[in-house]
Design a protein that fits this description.
The complex is a heterodimer of chains A (460) and B (1052). With 460 residues, chain A is mainly α. Chain A has 16 helices and no strands. Chain A is 70% helix and 0% strand. Chain B is an alpha/beta fold and 1052 residues long. In chain B, strands 20, 21, 22, 23, 24, 25, 26 and 27 form an eight-stranded mixed sheet that branches. In chain B, strands 5-4-16-15-14-6-7 form a seven-stranded mixed sheet, sandwiched between helices. A four-stranded parallel sheet of chain B has the order 11-10-9-12. In chain B, α13 packs parallel to α15. The longest helix of chain B has 17 residues. Chain B is globular. Classes of the chains: A mainly alpha (460), B alpha/beta (1052). At the A-B interface, α3, α6 and α11 of A face β30, α30, α31 and β34 of B.
Chain lengths: 460, 1052
């Protein structure tokens, strides 16, 4: 048996769903997580820790607002620090949700159904975390609305040539579309919860949120059209948002930032980190709520394959950067920056990111790694760290040493930088725990459609 | 006060102070916490009680865990302890200053630090009352500044100034362009003195053992004491002053000595150059001093003379030296051989930098002298023989137009050799002239001080009057001045600050700032300046003249009367018209000290007797003491601008350090490790022992420092300087000896396990092979004048699809001649003063957040350990025509004007800092916290009303002094003409003693700036980025001796 296992593993593809589920058991299983009266102790512990981190975030932000941006480590020359690193990192993480729910939907990848709901939730929460940073990093955050084109008595518009304005549009569009897509996907399940809820309060709240869904054929028909349209709307956003974010760097004249490879390289990196984050979240959730039947090894394997592919795209990006800088461009400043990035004062970060983002994920070529939940969990966390390091290296190493050696300077985050960063993870987890407790983590109606009994139903 | 004001107006007439309105300062008067006229009953507590109160308060703060932040002065002040403390004593009385925490806190009061950042609201509106003039004073037009001539007294020569006065408050120091001693340049000390005027920590009241008394009670008490002294002719009376240059003050002291014939007058300052004094006595038989004419000198040998350092006495030298090297001016360039014992600006700007140990300077000088034919033949170290031969040959080839200058710190022998060489080379009378000394009564200062201390120890001194200076801090340690001082029965100290000396004295009389009182002084060449006040004393300050008048029973005489009376008795100013003219001009014409037809004795023993060199123990170092480049001898320690001004060579701020050569540092395993915050450097602390005395000092590795030499700067380590200056750096006076005040041998260096963090503004010193500063020799420039553009063709202007923007009217531009810039940093301080630029404090400099709008980049050239020299590059905003900052600002807060300047709209800025990231020159400065002090009353008076005081969270940068541009345009439009060339002078340009900065309209081909930009030497920094800077640079040219290996042509 032991000898034959590899052979078997090659042939046997794990199912999308464990056998034995019926319409009723699917509904029972998923809705019971939400409708139970006994909140598991583990949830309280997890939520408590997350909420404490979130409070730390609020504290750090309060200090920031009261005293000014100087409580962070940013300086001249390094005008952007943790805030922008974290912004790009969170936005990137969000991408996997949209990719899973929209692009995989359009590509009719059935396996996506059991992970798309919380991947989308993750997107929303990550965008929320990302969205606060551009606001926080302003010198005068109370004037952030000046970045929006609104009619005003000053007759002043934003400066539309600035990539930061493009960011405002890209990110706000992304947030709105993601929210709509997620909420529309929730409606049939909210109706299920409404119908199964026993408490009065639950009935009212879920009832309001379900917006009168009765599950009629007309509803379903319009619903599916709408869902497809939204998926179509969300699809270009997967590419556009991080492209625009990369323009924040690529439009500038800084060596190491001013490169045309940034848009595709950023998008790949975003999907890479997003899948890593879905994996990081899916593995403990399926364990804790005993959802191995819905989120099977098939899902984990598929996601690890996507990560492997995206990791290689990112590696190609790194390679091209070095090629351009050292061999092709002939620009002494580019050349210096490329060398500096690898061997300069932040070289250790670069080495760490290569280890995290390129070397470690290569383990996933091995089927044995892809079959090991633990290995995937660890690798996904390493990739998350690596992608944060990548953004740190991009933002800080270019800024700290640019054209005039006289103005070079180092940068390090202060405790408020770290508190804000770790605290935003707390914000993310707080929202996630609330989501796990009050909304169905897995799309009930879509999973039901996956059952063999539903096979007669024509799929969209 | 009223009486005095009226008198002033009556007498001054045309000088126009405005009928007294210039002196009335209602705002400040209200805020002065205690006055002698109304002493607060609580204020009568002893100093001990006050300090224990403060300690208790500090404890209450320190007791809380973690760092305590406070958001406003009110909150901080809200504690009952603090209220009690304020009532009891104004902070100047208090010894909180030893605690760096509270010092840091006070930086905020000085507009200097981070904790005031609590004002989160952008809508901070100060409450103000508008009081219209009942009668409009003549010549005062609201919003129109007036300029008055005055001079800042300084030892070695005063700085002649024009001071801008806005509605009666002096706001900006400018040079006096008509004054022959400077021709308009200024130095960092005079530029920053305006902040000293408004320093809220200056002494504010007469005190007796710390208790506030009135001026009249002081006079009463001192009369009693002096009555006793008079009975024996003042046998127990001693007067200690700084070297007195003021003729009036000299006369007053002489009068005093007539009244007390047995009294003795001593003079001392840290900068005492007894070597020069002794040499002059020896060689000329009288205390003459040399004046150099660099405009006539073709070959210069500097024997450790830092004559390009920022000091009023050097302003003319800098101008003449740099002008001689300006190829556009058509002069034949000079050649400077700079012997130096530590890296200085003079060595950096020289053609041949000759680093050596202090003990070798004399041998080198003897070698050159012998080769010229002066003195006895000397043995010279092998390493210098070629150099000595070539230098001597070169000097001899330029008889009458060469120049040998010895540094103030050098011993008498070197000065004597320099005098003799100048004599032998026929330079005396052409490049060097000798005049009578500036001082009324020059003395060998350290001998005098030694005598005074001995008298004090023997209890011969019953009354000691200390006028100015800070001898308790500044006296060399071997004297134990403070200990001796305590045996004097009555000790009176007159000084600007409640400092180390005042804490040892019974009476402390606050000194009036030079901008608050009448006096007179001389510039380096002896030209008389009348020191004219710009404002009535802000506190209860008294001038030296008034204090002396009180001592000699003329206490009703005001400074004005005393100075005027003295000059009435002198021929040149005895008429009202001539007096008015001199006050108006700021100096008395033709009053420079005449050059005497003196020749040096060629037979002096100094020339032949080699000073015996002590054979120092092995493994010891030589040490040289130098005045600090920015805070001088410590008198400017409480001046935030000077503390934060990067030192010329090291770019360190807020600290001094023991300088080690890179090789010595390797041998001693000393390390300077770059920190992670931006401008922080962690360095090893060493213990230095000289003649049994020990201090600890951070070790700084300085390229260009000679091996085996440790350089220590005086002026730091103050214990009672005020909250800005106290406990910055270490006190090198503590191992200084009277025998070897400047250079000593036998310094033992021990490493310690301690580390210290220093704040540096420029952490990289090589150009990474990029041609940021173009440098070549005069010869190569003559052969290939267009070498810069042949190497790097300028970026074509038609790369864009869009047509170039037409600048039809004015097109402002700036040209900076790097060949003239000596790195003195006067421009940085002038800009800080003109543009209300805040001080941020050491902690913020460590985070690379200094706010200077124009910085001086210093790059070493040549090899790493021992650079050939250095180049200085002032970097203001480039005002790029294709400005990278403008396109990335999301709100349009930085925009281009139709005249080509890149303007900041402060109100529109939301603070994304993208503009700074995208600025390749990194000239933008960001208010990370509320750096500007919005609350201190006296600092409000300091501000230039034409420049916005920036708040937290916005970007700022050089504006080309847009307010000056606008003023000139308004004037020109009123007269229906164009702005004339030279009519607009930016603050940096006006301050520059070397005329390295030129501003003007580049659309006018006849303007000076356009002509400079047409020079082949002109280039744009980072031209390949196609930013098209409006600020351009002119390359550096050196004139090395072809016989010596040319090593200066390439940058490291």
């Amino acid at each position: 048996m032991a000898e034959r296992e590899p052979m078997m593993a090659e042939k046997v593809v794990p199912p999308i769903m464990e056998p034995g589920y019926t319409f009723a058991t699917v509904t029972d299983k998923i809705s019971s997580i939400v409708l139970t009266h006994k909140t598991p102790r583990g949830w309280y512990i997890g939520f408590g820790i997350s909420f404490a981190l979130f409070m730390m975030f609020l504290y750090a932000v309060s200090v920031l607002f009261v005293r000014g941006i100087g409580v962070w480590g940013v300086n001249i020359p390094v005008g952007w620090g943790f805030a922008i690193v974290n912004f790009v990192w969170w936005i990137g993480i969000g991408h996997a949700g949209t990719l899973i729910s929209a692009i995989l939907l359009l590509l009719k990848q059935d396996w996506r159904t059991s992970i798309n709901r919380f991947a989308e939730a993750m997107t929303l929460f990550a965008v929320a975390c990302a969205g606060v940073y551009p606001l926080l990093h302003l010198g005068r955050p109370w004037l952030a609305y000046w970045l929006f084109p609104y009619p005003n008595t000053m007759s002043v518009w934003p400066q539309f040539r600035s990539p930061l304005i493009w960011d405002v549009f890209a990110v706000s569009t992304y947030a709105i579309v993601s929210l709509m897509f997620w909420f529309v996907g929730l409606i049939p399940d909210l109706a299920t919860l409404r119908d199964r809820a026993t408490g009065r309060v639950q009935k009212v709240i879920y009832g309001l949120l379900a917006m009168g869904w009765r599950g009629s054929a007309k509803h379903w028909s319009r619903y599916e059209t709408m869902y497809l349209l939204l998926a179509g709307l969300a699809t270009p956003l997967v590419v556009s948002v991080h492209t625009v974010v990369s323009f924040d760097f690529a439009i500038s004249i800084l060596p190491g930032w001013h490169t045309t490879i940034f848009p595709p390289y950023f998008v790949a990196g975003a999907i890479y980190s997003g899948f890593a984050m879905v994996m990081t979240l899916a593995i403990p959730i399926r364990k804790f709520y005993h959802l191995e039947g819905f989120i099977t090894m098939r899902h984990l394997q598929n996601m690890s394959k996507v990560m492997l592919a995206m990791g290689l795209v990112v590696a190609y990006g790194y390679g091209m950067e070095i090629f351009m800088g050292l061999l092709y461009s002939g620009n002494p400043h580019e050349h210096f920056q490329t060398v500096n990035r690898i061997t300069g004062p932040y070289g250790i970060f670069y080495a760490a990111l290569i280890l995290c983002n390129i070397l470690t994920p290569q383990l996933m070529w091995m089927r044995r790694t892809r079959n090991s939940v633990w290995a995937l969990f660890v690798i996904s966390i390493i990739v998350n760290i690596g992608m944060w390091l990548e953004r740190f290296v991009i933002v800080v190493s270019s800024l700290s040493r640019d054209f005039l050696p006289s103005s070079w300077g180092m940068y390090a985050g202060t405790r408020y930088d770290w508190m804000t960063f770790v605290g935003s993870i707390g914000l993310f987890l707080t929202l996630l725990f609330l989501f796990l407790r009050f909304l169905p983590t897995i799309s009930i109606f879509e999973v039901r459609a996956m059952l063999p009994a539903a096979a007669i139903k024509e799929k969209h | 006060m009223q009486q005095k004001k009226d008198r002033m107006n009556d007498e001054v007439g045309p000088i126009q102070f405005g009928s007294g309105n210039g002196f009335s300062l209602p705002v400040l008067g209200q805020d002065t916490p205690t006055t002698p006229e109304s002493p607060d009953p609580i204020a009568a507590g002893s100093r001990d009680a006050a300090s224990s109160e403060v300690l208790a308060f500090q404890k209450s703060v320190e007791g809380k865990s973690g760092k305590q932040y406070w958001r406003s002065i009110d909150e901080w002040a809200g504690t009952p302890e603090f209220e009690a403390y304020v009532k009891r004593e104004y902070p100047s009385q208090v010894e909180v200053i030893v605690d760096p925490f509270s010092r840091r806190r006070f930086l905020q009061l000085m507009g200097a630090s981070l904790a005031l950042a609590g004002f989160s609201s952008c809508a901070y509106q100060p409450k103000e009352e508008l009081l219209p003039y009942v009668r409009q004073p003549e010549e005062i037009v609201a919003g129109k500044p007036l300029y008055f001539a005055t001079a800042m007294p300084m030892s070695g020569g005063a700085a002649p100034l024009l001071v801008r006065s806005n509605e009666g408050r002096p706001t900006k120091i400018e040079g006096n362009p008509e004054h022959p001693a400077t021709l308009g340049g200024t130095d960092i000390f005079s530029q920053a003195s305006i902040l000293g005027l408004y320093d809220p920590e200056r002494s504010q009241a007469v005190t007796y053992t710390g208790e506030i008394h009135s001026w009249s009670s002081f006079i009463g008490e001192i009369r009693v004491a002096l009555g006793v002294e008079k009975s024996n002719g003042g046998q127990g009376l001693r007067i200690l002053t700084e070297p007195v240059i003021s003729p009036t003050l000299g006369k007053q002291i002489m009068d005093l000595l007539k009244l007390y014939p047995n009294a003795t007058w001593y003079q001392y300052e840290s900068a005492a150059s007894d070597g020069a004094f002794q040499a002059a006595q020896e060689v000329f038989g009288e205390p003459v001093r040399p004046i150099y004419h660099f405009e006539k000198a073709d070959r210069i040998l500097s024997l450790d003379a830092d004559f390009l350092a920022s000091h009023p006495k050097n302003l003319r030298y800098i101008k003449d030296y740099t002008k001689k090297r300006n190829p556009e001016a058509g002069n034949t360039p000079n050649r400077l051989y700079a012997v130096e014992t530590t890296a200085t600006a003079t060595g950096g700007n020289s053609d041949h930098r000759i680093p050596m140990k202090p003990s070798e300077v004399e041998m080198f000088a003897r070698g050159v002298a012998a080769a010229i034919g002066v003195g006895a033949a000397a043995e010279v170290p092998e390493a210098f023989s070629l150099m000595i031969e070539e230098v001597a040959k070169d000097l001899k080839a330029h008889r009458g137009s060469s120049l040998v200058i010895a540094g103030d710190e050098q011993p008498a022998a070197v000065h004597a050799l320099a005098y003799a060489m100048n004599g032998a080379l026929g330079n005396a009378g052409s490049t060097v002239v000798f005049t009578k000394p500036l001082e009324v009564n020059p003395v060998a200062q350290l001998n005098g001080l030694r005598e005074l201390v001995a008298d004090m120890q023997q209890r011969k001194v019953t009354t000691l009057i200390i006028l100015g200076g800070n001898p308790v801090y500044a006296a060399p340690a071997d004297l134990n001045f403070a200990g001796a001082l305590e045996s004097v029965q009555l000790r009176i100290y007159h000084g600007l600050y409640n400092d180390e000396t005042s804490s040892y004295c019974h009476w402390h009389v606050p000194e009036a700032h030079y901008l608050e009182t009448w006096s007179d002084t001389r510039a380096y060449d002896g030209t008389i300046s009348i020191v004219q006040p710009l404002i009535a004393p802000l506190y209860q300050g008294k001038s030296k003249h008034e204090v002396l008048a009180a001592i000699i029973d003329q206490s009703d005489h005001t400074s004005y009367e005393i100075v005027r009376a003295y000059w009435k008795s002198q021929g040149a100013l005895n008429t009202e018209a001539s007096w008015r003219q001199a006050v108006h001009d700021g100096f008395l014409k033709e009053s420079a000290l005449p050059a005497g037809g003196l020749t040096a004795k060629q037979t002096s023993g100094l020339l032949t007797n080699v000073t015996p060199q002590q054979q120092p123990a092995s493994n010891t170092f030589e040490v040289n003491f130098r005045l600090d480049p920015t805070i001088h001898d410590g008198q400017f320690a409480n001046n935030g601008w000077l503390q934060e001004l990067p030192k010329t060579m090291t770019k360190l701020t807020w600290d001094n350090a023991a300088f080690f050569s890179p090789r010595d540092a390797r041998n001693l395993r000393l390390e300077n490790s770059m920190g992670s915050s931006g401008g922080d450097f962690e360095v090893d602390v060493v213990e230095l022992e000289l003649a049994g005395r020990k201090i600890k000092a951070p070790a700084w590795i300085l390229p260009g420092q000679p091996d085996g030499v440790v350089t220590l700067h005086l002026g730091y380590g103050r214990t009672r300087a005020g909250h800005v200056g106290t406990a910055t750096g270490f006190n090198a006076n503590l191992i200084r000896n009277t025998g070897t005040p400047w250079n000593a041998t036998g310094l033992i260096v021990r490493s310690t396990a301690e580390r210290y963090v220093m704040a540096q503004t420029q952490t990289h010193h090589s150009m990474e092979g990029w041609n940021l500063v173009h440098e070549t020799t005069f010869d190569e420039y003559r052969e290939h004048p267009d070498y810069i553009h042949e190497e790097e063709p300028p970026t074509p202007r038609d790369l864009s699809l869009f047509p170039n923007w037409p600048y039809n009217g004015y097109a402002w531009g700036l040209a900076i001649d790097l060949n003239s810039c000596v790195g003195c940093s006067a421009c940085t301080v002038a800009c800080q003063s003109e543009n209300n630029i805040p001080v941020v404090g050491k902690e913020q400099v460590m985070m690379s957040r200094e706010m200077h709008w124009i910085r001086i980049d210093r790059y070493f050239t040549g090899s790493g350990d021992n650079p050939n020299g250095s180049v200085f590059q002032p970097v203001p905003c480039m005002h790029c025509e294709n400005a990278p900052c403008e396109v990335v600002c999301p709100v349009g807060a930085t925009v281009h004007s139709a005249e080509g300047t890149n303007d900041m709209v402060y109100n529109r800025c939301v603070g994304t800092r993208y503009c700074s990231n995208n600025c390749p020159y990194k000239v933008r400065r960001f208010n990370f916290l509320l750096f500007n002090d919005w609350t201190s009353a006296s600092l409000k008076l300091l501000r230039n009303p034409e420049v916005t005081v920036r708040s937290r969270g916005i970007m700022e940068k050089c504006t080309y002094c847009i307010q000056r541009i606008q003023n000139a345009k308004i004037e020109s439009e009123k007269e229906n003409r164009l702005v004339r060339d030279g009519e607009i002078v930016t603050a940096c340009q006006s301050a520059c003693p070397a005329d390295a900065i030129t501003f003007g309209n580049i659309n006018d081909p006849n303007s000076k700036v356009a002509k400079l930009k047409a020079s082949k030497r002109n280039y744009s920094l980072l031209d390949d980025l196609n930013t098209r800077p409006r600020t351009t640079y002119l390359s550096v040219l050196r004139n090395p001796n072809p016989a010596l290996k040319p090593t200066k042509t390439e940058n490291a």
